[in-house]
Amino acid sequence: MSSSKNQYDYWVACSGGVDSIVLVRLFKELNKNFGILHCNFKLRGVDSDNDEEFVRNLADEIDVPIKVRVFDVNNYIKEQGGNVQLAARNLRYRWFEEVKSKYKAKIVLGHHKDDQIETFLLQLRRGGKLKGLSSMPLLNEGYVRPLLSYSKLEIYDLARQNNWAWREDSSNKKSDYLRNYYRNELIPSFENISWLKTEILGLVQNFQVLLNFSERYLNQRFNFSKDVEVSFSLWDSWAFWLKQLFVSESGIAPISVKEVDRLRNSQKGKYLSNEFKSIWNEGNRFLMRSSNDFIAFPEYQIKTISSSTNVDYKEDDVFIDKDKVQGNIRLRKWREGESFQPLGMKGQKKISKFLRDRKVSSSEKKNYPVIVDETDQIIGVARMCPDERYKVDEKTNNILVIKFTTLSSD
Questions:
Q1: Which residues does 166 contact at the CB level (< 8 Å), separation at least 6?
Q2: The pTM is what?
Q3: What is the set of domains in the chain, with CATH numbers?
Q4: Tens digit of each residue's pLDDT (9 = 90 or more) over 349-373
């Protein structure tokens, strides 16, 4: 069955197991506008193909569209590493993200109450962060989990009462993976301790409340799509788990909190970076920005005017005596140890010290542009001032106006 873009509100992930079958059947009974997604990982030979055929037949029976994706898990592991479970999860969610984006629909997952407990215990064992201990939310970033309030036994009971057929994955019965051990051995033993599941789910709910509050706090205080500044005093006041959440939200992960703490106590100008973001020590605060922001030069225009013209001296523009310059001018990054004679000064000053005195942040200072002529002589600093030896004076006939418009870091 074909479908047009944006036709369906939901796409239900269906493996053929009882959880996802119940979900599909309930969505059909509720007349939801939905389609089915099925992943065939080809890990169980003919059983995997039989699962696919079963789900295809179900889609045909209830007259809903279906999309099937076949994955090469072993090849993914060769290229990316990891184990079978992690590879299958990554491949599955990568596809779900594609579907979610293309059809502007929600992805519906069959996770239930026992899955929630299982996830929490696994995260607890691994020393999980706040997000991990919050386990799985009912609704988050386009994913919906309607069965989180129901146990596995309740789902089985509902399927049997309605004579809904499903497929059993024999690999789930093996306890060779830690997750399967928790699922098959540990959690079923909780049935004899009536209060334990309730206590664990209560902890999950508390962690979710704390996570929601903390995310609101951070996102109200910081705009993570732009440069972010955090004073050392604020950073020091935060609990470790809030620092972990900040690292995650700001995009500087996998840099750890311990690494950021070491950066906080290092020299001004030191920084850490990943592919997308950098975090800088600015002496009394952190500055986070795109890793590429500080390497682009400001946009500028050059024009020549007569000294007899009424000149509008703007703060960000640089004015130079054209006749003192050799050839064309350009911008380049300053080099370690370079000096120039700032406007109004008698002696030389290193570019690094000049920029520091002008309160240029360490991240911007690293590649700040200077103005040079064809001999590579520094004749000024972008958006600041000319070299004293190239300034406009009473003998100037022609003025070079270097008009800077925007900096990429703005």
A1: 16, 17, 18, 21, 22, 159
A2: 0.67
A3: 1-110+146-172 (3.40.50.620), 113-135+174-220 (no CATH), 222-291 (no CATH), 295-404 (3.50.40.10)
A4: 999 899 988 888 877 787 788 999 8
